[in-house]
Write a structure and sequence with these properties.
The protein has 16 helices and 18 strands. The strands form three sheets. Strands 2-1-3-4-9-8-7-5-6 form a nine-stranded mixed beta sheet, sandwiched between helices. A five-stranded parallel beta sheet has the order 12-11-10-13-14, sandwiched between helices. By secondary structure, the chain is of the alpha/beta class. A hairpin with a 2-residue loop joins strand 7 and strand 8 (about 155-160).
Length: about 525
């Protein structure tokens, strides 16, 4: 089935992925591409609408990202310019955009000037909006008319004849309360989208696609981590080809408390996957012995995982495909308009396996965001204990133990982390945070237990709120909750006499400590 497509050209805005998510929430499929996608490539995709994103540049800069002016002539679909996109349209089509004397950041009150504007149809004349710009349009291009202002600043403009609609504010953020309705007017009234892209339609189409790709005889290997992405990917492939998929779930000894046994039970008993559980804890502890540097730990864990996985996969005759839970943000970042990024930390998935094992890839989730993966997982009947599980790093507790890793330290951290997560559930706030975990610090401090002096370890607990993990804020957890967690950890986990709470946001910190 052919779904309507909205194409988003990315000029580097921190909100571009949010635009895509808001569009998809309306049941309309969309894709993000770099701003320099050629006009012919854009036209070949036959989009129902085109969105030009915001961006950090000034359109007056000599090296500012631009599109070919042919885009406005050759692509017949309606265009929505947001922030930088509005300024770009103004300059490209004969108007002016200049640095503002008074920059607008944050909340603003916008006044719609006419009830005839299709973009603001059936919306109030006074709207709360969110601004984030240093330039603004000072002269409209020929054929455009002003549709909204904040004070004396042009906040929206349209050309009904050319079907181009532009706004200076960000309708995609939650701080613009009626932004969803603005986008809805563009998608349905202006572009004529049907809104028929749903999790259930995705499942049916993806299952058919997998069957076609794999054929009637090939076998497939899938690496399971116990997390949302790999589980949903495995269940989708299982729906398509059944037991011709063999899943391998490796216990690296760095999983959460009893996670290997519990998750293996769900895979076998609830989801009926063809899964092999491999306990390689001792092998991972051996390669980690004496290593304290976080990058070296990640590399050692990743290399050992590939060795263990390949040894098991080699036993499967006729395996030609490898399933990976790649998500759309991974795809987008691989073609980022910002160019090559500095490596903050090495990511550990099953990187290197397709080349090393000469396998072809199946990535059934590569068009989806995390919240869409969870929705599809629910339609597939995957238990909430997996779908609502917080993100967990590939190297597991290996990068939550600062310094060298030993089985004794792992056991101590598993107990502390179990108590933290258990109390989040007990207080009913587990789903209010995006990620929560405990960290074992290489610090000992003086304490007192009973009449005795102690000199024992410190546990840091971390909880953040976020939408996608790209930015995050520390969670404002209740004091009585923190008190309960601290009391339980210091009482129940032998060897710990101090608990601290991490109140750092990302940026400047990362979510994980290593």
């Amino acid at each position: 089935m052919q779904h309507d497509l909205i194409l988003i050209l990315d000029f580097g805005s921190q909100y571009t992925q949010l635009i895509a998510r808001r569009v998809r929430e309306q049941g309309v499929y969309c894709e993000i591409h770099p701003f320099n996608l050629s006009v012919d490539e854009v036209a070949a995709k036959r989009p129902k609408g085109l969105i030009l994103s915001g961006g950090p540049s000034s359109v007056t800069d000599e090296d500012a990202p631009r599109v070919s002016t042919e885009l406005y002539e050759k692509v017949e679909a309606p265009i929505l310019g947001i922030c930088y996109g509005m300024q770009l349209v103004a300059i490209d089509l004969g108007g002016k955009s200049e640095p503002a004397i008074r920059r607008e950041y944050g909340h603003a009150q916008m006044k719609v000037l006419s009830g005839k504007t299709r973009l603001f149809d059936e919306l109030p004349f006074d709207l709360d909006v969110w601004m984030s710009h240093g330039d603004h349009v000072t002269e409209l291009p020929p054929g455009f008319y002003k549709t909204a202002t904040t004070g004396d600043v042009i906040t929206a403009m349209e050309s009904e004849e050319r079907r181009i609609y532009c706004v200076q504010f960000h309708p995609e953020v939650s701080h613009t309360p009626l932004g969803k309705e603005v986008l809805r007017n563009f998608l349905f009234d202006i572009c004529g989208c049907k809104g028929d892209w749903t999790p259930s339609s995705f499942i049916k189409e993806e299952v058919e696609k997998i069957r076609e790709i794999v054929g009637n005889d090939d076998r497939v290997v899938c690496g399971l981590s116990g997390g949302v992405d790999s589980t949903v990917a495995a269940v989708l492939v299982h729906e398509a080809i059944g037991d011709r998929q063999t899943c391998i779930f490796v216990n690296n000894g760095l999983l959460r408390y009893s996670e290997f046994e519990d998750t293996l039970g769900v895979y076998n008993d609830n989801l009926h996957l063809n899964v092999i559980g491999v306990d390689a804890s001792k092998d991972f502890y051996a390669v980690l012995e004496g290593i304290s540097d976080p990058e070296e730990k990640r590399k050692a864990i990743g290399a050992k995982f590939i060795d263990v996985f390949q040894a098991e996969a080699d036993k499967i005759e006729g395996a030609k495909w490898l399933v990976q839970g790649t998500l759309y943000p991974d795809v987008i970042e691989s073609v980022s308009v910002r160019g090559a990024s500095v490596t903050i930390k090495t990511h550990h998935n099953v990187g290197g396996l397709p080349e090393k094992m000469n396998l072809k890839l199946i990535e059934p989730l590569r068009e989806l965001f995390k919240d869409e993966v969870r929705a599809i997982g629910r339609d597939l009947g995957i238990p909430e204990m997996i779908l609502e599980r917080h993100p967990f790093p590939g190297p597991g507790l290996g990068v939550r133990i600062l310094g060298d890793v030993t089985p004794e330290k792992v056991e101590l951290l598993q107990e502390a982390d179990r108590i933290f997560i258990e109390e989040l559930h007990n207080f009913g706030i587990y789903r209010d945070v995006w990620q929560a975990f405990a960290v074992l610090l290489p610090i000992q401090s003086v304490g007192v237990m009973g009449d005795f002096r102690t000199y024992e370890k410190t546990i840091a607990i971390r909880a953040v709120t976020s939408t996608d993990g790209m930015t995050a804020d520390w969670a404002r957890l209740p004091h009585e909750f923190l008190a309960k967690v601290s009391s339980r950890i210091t009482s129940e986990v032998r060897g710990v006499n101090r608990v601290v709470y991490d109140i750092s946001s990302k940026p400047p910190s990362t979510i994980e400590w290593e």
